[in-house]
Amino acid sequence: MLTDAQMLSFATGVARLFEFAGIGVIIAGTLLAMVQFALGGLGLPSGRRSAARGDLVPGFRKTLGRSILTGLELLVAADIIRTVAVEPTLQSVLVLGLIVIIRTFLSFSLEVEIDGRWPWQKPAG
């Protein structure tokens, strides 16, 4: 059976892994978006369907936005793990709630930016 100190150490390590994963996803997605944009600008195939030059910026923004969204999800998971692992205080729970509210606002904003519609709206025919 694990002691409280061992559980706290384990949870902190897992939270740190989620943080690294979140940062890694954002960096990798940014690099991927930049490479696709550069290859598309040069007229080379970028690994996805060839897009017309007019689709380069929207494609870049979509790839970048999705990587940021995924990274944010992982960073919030790390915050949740860290908050639950340590004895939750009113202050830590309020900070977590604020982080979740900010993340939700960012997610909705990015979703509208990426798809051009609210998440609950049906895609255009």
Description:
The chain is mainly α and 125 residues long. It has one domain (4-115). It is 75% helix and 0% strand. The chain is built from three helices and no strands. The protein has helices at 4-41, 56-85, 90-115. Helix 1 runs antiparallel to helix 2 (56-85) and helix 2 (56-85) runs antiparallel to helix 3 (90-115). It is elongated and about 60 Å long. It starts with a helix and ends in a 10-residue tail after the last helix. The relative contact order is 0.13.
At a glance:
The protein has 125 residues and is mainly α. The protein has helices at 4-41, 56-85, 90-115. Helix 1 (4-41) runs antiparallel to helix 2 and helix 2 (56-85) packs antiparallel against helix 3 (90-115).
Computed structural class = mainly alpha
Number of domains: 1
> Which blocks of ≥5 consecutive residues have pLDDT under 50?
none
Largest sheet: none
User: Which shape, going by the Cα principal axes?
Assistant: elongated
What percent of residues adopt helix (DSSP H or I)?
over 70%
Question: Could you tell me the mean pLDDT?
Answer: 84
- What is the succession of H and E elements? HHH
How many separate helices? 3
In terms of DSSP E residues, the strand content is: under 5%
Termini Cα gap: 56 Å
Radius of gyration, in Å, reads 19 Å
Report the count of strand segments.
0
Oligomer: single chain
